[in-house]
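---------- Forwarded message ----------

FYI, see the Release factor glutamine methyltransferase record below. Original note from H. follows.
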Amino acid sequence: MLSIQTALDQATERLSTSSESAALDAEVLLCLTLQKQRSHLRAWPDKMLDAPQTEAFWAVVAKRQQGQPIAYITGIREFWSRDFKVSPAVLIPRPDTEVLIEHALRLLPINQPCKIIDLGTGSGIISVTLAAERLLSEVTATDISETALAIAQSNAKQHCVDHIQFYISDWFSQVPEGLFDLVVSNPPYIAENNPHLLDGDLRFEPQSALIALDNGLKDIQTLVEQSRSRLHIGGHLLIEHGYNQQDAVQNIFQHFAYKNIQTYIDLSGQPRVTYGQWHS
C-alpha cells in the first residue's frame, strides 16, 4: 500500500519525462482518483490508498504517460472561471480564447438585448460564457459535429443557461434567417503540414476542428464572407486565429469590406483575435 505522498512522489517521477508539469499532473490525477480536492492531499499526506484506489491511480497515470491530455482524462477544463465538460470530440479550451470573450463583452452592454452567434461552438465555451455574462442576449450556437453539440448543450445546462439555440450546421447553412449583432468563432486555422500537429495535446484533438485548407485560412475566409449577410449594419465580427496569421486575416477582412479592423493580442503577447465591423 502507498501513502498519498508516496503515490504523488512516484507518479511525479514517472511523469517527469512526458510532462512539463509532472507534479501538478500527479496531484490532479490523484484528486480525480480519490474524488477529493487538492487540499485533501496536503492535509492527509500519510493516508494510505487502498488497492482499488492504487490500481485506478496508476491507470490514469499511464494514460498521461502516453501523452493523453489531462483535460481528456479528467473530462473537465476551466474557462472564464467555470468548469466545462470536454471529451476527445471537442478542442480543449485554452486561455487564449478568453481574449475573444473579453473583447466580445466590451461590445455588448450588459443591460441591452442582443443577438449573438457562435459558429463552430465545440464544447460551448464561447456561447455558454457569453450567454452567462449577458443574460439579455439571444445566443445561437452551431457545430457540424452532433457529438460536440451534445457536449455544448450539456455545458449550457450545467451552467443554467437556457437562452441558447443549438443547430447542427456547417457554419450558417442550417441557421434560420435573421441578423446578428455579433458573430464569433474559433474556427480551424492550422495548416495541414504544420509540424505542431504532431506535438503535445494537438495529437489527440479532433483534426476537423484544427486543420483548414489554404494554409489554414479557408474556414476564416468562408466565415468572413458569409457573415456579411448575417450581420446588422454596424454589427461585429470576432475571429480567433493563429499567432502568425494577423496580416493574412486582416487582408481577408479588408477584401470583404469590413471597417475598423483591429487585431488583439493574447496572454502571451501574440496576435490572436481579429475584429471587423460591417457597414455596407
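H. also flagged this: The longest strand covers residues 231-240.
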